[in-house]
Amino acid sequence: MRKLVAIALRFAKRQLPRWAAVSLSVIALSSHAQVPTPPxxxxxxxxxxxxxxxxxxxxxxxxxxxxxxxxxxxxFQPAWIGQNEQAAANTAxxxxxxxxxxxxxxxxxxxxxxxxxxxxxxxxxSVLFELxxxxxxxxYESDVHLGRVSPxxxxxxxxxxxxxxxxxxGTQQALIxxxxxxxxxxxxxxxxxxxxxxxxxxxxxxxxxxxxxxPIDNAGTIRPDLQDPRALALRARLALEDPSFSANQDxxxxxxxxxxxxxxxxRNNLRPDGIAGHETLxxxxxxxSTRISTIIVNMERWRWMPRSLGTRYIAVNxxxxxxxxxxxxKTVIASRVIVGRPRSATPIFDAMxxxxxxxxxxxxxxxxxxxxxLPKVRRNPGYLASHHMFIDGSGAVRxxxxxDNALGYVKLEM
Length: 414
Hints:
Elements: H1 2-15, H2 18-30, H3 41-51, H4 61-73, H5 86-97, H6 111-119, H7 123-146, H8 151-154, E1 158-159, H9 167-176, H10 180-185, H11 192-209, H12 231-241, H13 255-267, H14 278-284, H15 288-304, E2 312-317, E3 322-327, E4 330-336, E5 348-349, E6 355-358, E7 362-363, H16 366-379, H17 383-386, E8 389-391, E9 397-399, E10 410-413
Parallel strand pairs: 1-5
Antiparallel strand pairs: 2-3, 3-4, 6-10, 7-9, 8-9
Helix pairs in contact: 1-2, 3-7, 5-7, 6-7, 11-15, 12-13
């Protein structure tokens, strides 16, 4: 056998790069060596449990390699059981219990099993608790930092930078430095919008716990200046989401009700006319459970985003067709923008602006030219001229610079 290994190594040195030959050397050596059993009985029990494989040790197959690496890095010493480890265990358990505040599902982290194992007097239960808590915490760290699902699994048109993250190494370092609470606290996105969503999630869950809201009869517009039997229900509904408005306050002429309607409409991207018309009533009647689900989905989307956007950036919110230019944390420009339709949605992407073109030509994308522009030309031969468009020598449709140019006066090159 040694002769075969030597031949394999010589071959590797001739045919493979140096790192591959070294890797084979390590494999050859490990075939003749056994990992020494730790002298500590608890460490030995952890190693023995892991040596039995994922099922016997109570670990799911996808997480087994990570947990084995976690304990190999610490010579199989426990991270959570023992007097010196109690504070870290409490921090880990409390973080998992608070996972709902991050829009996550506590049941994913096996809290019931952890509580049962923690309270069991059986000696074997402590090792299982140790391994189960490690698995649950690493799972939570990945979920809260990277997201529960990959963005590409939801939308193929996503181009975001990779977010390198190693929960095994991060947790290990935090335990060594005795700073596990600080480490876990910085894992969720630190963007202000994410924190605002977390605060909104708590508010809407409190509303849901108190019974939520009842739908308002949508049979016609509710005008504050007219006597309408639905006005009381409207007042109560608005007060649930608007801390500056009270359903029972004295309101001569319904002026405060009108302003409360306007504020609600502005928050929900509706025309702020102060009248509870059809669109406003439809929005008011969306169940609180749906609002909660929407918040949770958007918290997940923030977990996909780069951890730092820099001190100066442009953020386009396709959902409400708005743009913000942010400098040192402050919005210096805000604008409405045109975004794609559902069948031709605006992609999710992160890119660096490399140049600016003033008064640009618009090179109409072939799909837009084929599906939108040319059918209009067939119906109206003067369409191109009236929109300052022309067909160039290559057959592409272009639009000249000017006030009606689809790109506006400035084009950002990315």
